[in-house]
Amino acid sequence: MKTRTVLQAKRLGIVSCVGSDPLGQIAARMADDDISALVVTDVNGHLTGVISRSDLLRAYVEALDWRTATVEQFMTRQVITVTPDTLLSDAALLLLGRHIHRVVVVRQEEEGLRPIAVLSDSDLVCEMAASL
Description:
The structure is a single chain. By secondary structure, the chain is an alpha/beta fold. It has a single domain (6-130), classed as CBS-domain (Roll), CATH 3.10.580.10. The chain has six helices and six strands; from the N terminus they run αβαββααβαββα. The protein has helices at residues 6-9, 23-33, 53-62, 71-74, 88-98, 121-130; strands at residues 16-18, 37-41, 47-52, 81-82, 102-109, 112-120. Strands 1-2-3 form a three-stranded mixed beta sheet. Helix 2 links the parallel strand 1 (16-18) and strand 2 (37-41). The longest helix is centred in the first third of the chain and has 11 residues, at 23-33. The chain starts with 5 loop residues before the first helix and ends with a helix.
């Protein structure tokens, strides 16, 4: 596992939304699809943030009506990213060192970062179990 890259371990694809989406809609998607975060993109598909369950809880506590608040009001803007050739062991160190649960796998484009996958701590544990 320690020599495998993110691209070797993770299927490509993301679940995304845009900043203007209402949080009520996002909460329903997360619950229906059993996912813990969505990648937030601009109209061109470039990374602008991440909205997580924790962000939704913060909105629930802070907003007058969290359901109509928008993703951009509560999303995490400073997203930790890795490239497809990042080693899984390096990604694990990043998660531990930053006390975070996921990183967004991106490809650099002239216009910005294109999200192509999300690697979570759960994905890494599954990789560990598969290598037994």
